[in-house]
Design brief:
Helix 7 (140-152) runs parallel beside helix 8 (180-196). The protein has one domain (4-251): TIM Barrel (Alpha-Beta Barrel). The chain has ten helices and eight strands. The chain has helices at 15-28, 48-54, 81-86, 97-102, 107-119, 132-136, 140-152, 180-196, 214-221, 238-248; strands at 4-8, 39-42, 61-64, 91-94, 123-128, 162-166, 206-209, 228-231. The protein is α/β, with parallel strands linked by helices. Helix 1 (15-28) links the parallel strand 1 and strand 2 (39-42). Strands 1-2-3-4-5-6-7-8 form an eight-stranded parallel beta barrel, surrounded by six helices. It binds 2-phosphoglycolic acid (PGA). 2-phosphoglycolic acid binds at residues 8, 167, 172-173, 209-212, 230-234.
């Protein structure tokens, strides 16, 4: 799988709204060409069980926005990777900038999460990206390098269950997306870095995230190194998420 579209619902939607949105997407994904496009929905953890039941027979996959390493333990408020897998979750987000920034998650812990998730059979979407201050200081590539190095060095990754998201922090939820050139440059850099860890980089999705919308999706997806998107705000409405997903269809091989 190289191309893929993902929805990060973050801490939004009441249960009935989440279900209605998922059902609308499930319907849309029932027919070609969308049914040929891998799609992953990351709802609030509370809704995973329900969406897992609803997705039976659909090509859409579901993922958790977070997970704790291991199976059981005295970690009040946490949900383990094993528990997520047990209710039918297929993916987990690791390293989202909101987790790094508001919950103080650093690479050593993120590495543990990745290993644990993969041991439980989950696929991992690992997020990286620089802040505005880091970009202005010319540190973009060194930040991306250390965000990869901290989790990949000497780590036995199952590459077939690993994807990356490049999400410049300054573009998340700001309405200010990276330009196509900035995205292409960062994605090419990340793919080259993946090769240095022995990854089959040409088969690994590198998604762009940060103020993706129907208006900018086609141009970003036209970049050869941009394999899809991780969509926040615009994934909360059926029409806008579908418009973004359809912009990615241009990349699918004609069957
Ligand atoms: P956004 O969020 O599309 O609302 O900028 C993207 C993300 O944080 O994954």
């Amino acid at each position: 799988m190289r191309y893929c579209i993902a929805a990060n619902w973050k801490m939004h939607l009441y249960p009935a709204e989440a279900e209605a949105l998922f059902l609308a997407l499930r319907d849309a994904w029932q027919e070609a060409p969308l049914s040929n496009l891998p799609g992953i929905i990351f709802p609030p953890v509370l809704y995973l069980q329900r969406l897992s039941d609803l997705r039976q027979g659909s090509p859409l996959q579901i993922g958790a926005q977070n997970g704790y390493p291991g199976e059981f333990g005295a970690y009040t408020g946490e949900v383990s990777m094993a528990q997520l897998a047990a209710v039918g979750t297929q993916w987990v987000l690791v390293g989202h900038s909101e987790r790094r920034q508001y919950f103080g998650e650093g690479e050593a812990f993120l590495r543990e999460k990745i290993l644990s998730a993969q041991q439980r059979g989950l696929s991992v979407l690992y997020c990286v990206g620089e802040t505005q201050a880091q970009r202005s200081a010319g540190q973009t590539f060194s930040v991306l390098t250390s965000q990869l190095e901290g989790v990949l060095r000497d780590t036995p990754i199952a590459w077939s269950r690993f994807a990356l998201a490049y999400e410049p922090v300054w573009a998340i939820g700001t309405g200010l997306n990276a330009t196509a050139t900035q995205a292409q440059e960062a994605h090419a850099f990340l793919r080259a870095q993946l090769r240095t860890y022995g990854a089959p980089a040409d088969t690994i999705p590198i998604l762009y995230g940060g103020s993706l919308k129907p208006e900018n999706a086609a141009e970003l997806f036209a970049q050869p190194e941009v394999d899809g998107g991780l969509v926040g705000g615009a994934s909360l409405k059926t029409e806008s998420f579908l418009a973004i997903a359809k912009a990615l269809l241009q990349k699918l091989p004609v069957s």
